[in-house]
Specification:
The chain is an alpha/beta fold and about 200 residues long. It has one domain: Rossmann fold (3-Layer(aba) Sandwich). It is about 25% helix and about 25% strand. The protein is built from six helices and seven strands, in the order ααβαβαββαβαββ. The protein has a seven-stranded mixed β-sheet, sandwiched between helices. Helix 5 crosses helix 6. The longest helix has 14 residues. The N terminus is likely disordered.
Length: about 200
Amino acid sequence: MSGDDSEEEFDFNDSYLGTPPWDIGRPQPALVELEATGVISGAVLDVGCGTGENALHYADRGHSVLGVDAAENAIAKAREKAKNRGLSDRVRFEVHDAFDLASLGEQFDTITDCGLFHVFGSEVAVAYGESLNTALKPGGRYVMLGFSERDGRIGPSTNEAIIRRAFGEGWRIDEIRETTFETTDPAMYNHHALLAVVTKAN
């Protein structure tokens, strides 16, 4: 979807019975770069974590990480990866609602989001931003990587206006820039992406 609040029914849980195109078997390069430069720091919550590649990368780099996703099949795969890679002591994976992050009872230094925000229209994005606020420490950062509507190929997408509406009062938008979102099927899923870094006010 792009720019409105109508959402097509899509079963993300069933998509993880196989390997969806956005699951590339490694972390997204844009997020690897941000972790290396310290933008992603401290305790990390990865929302919409899928099978965990980004969260596992943060854990491997020494962060305490919680990955959450509504798709049970994705979380099962993420837990198996953590076990196989010897990272279960640094990363947890839980089935959880992204619109009820307050019920986690925890706050994090950084929240990352790779491929979730872009499925929301502007009204839903505002509600999501309110949920993020409950789980982020004052001065903490929210980092979002999502498909940009610039390309227009099949799949959800977002734009700068939706981002700015979701993160108004109580937030500071540090950066919104174009980058690349890697997939295994560039013919169907657009590679043009937006990267946003937003700081919660102290």
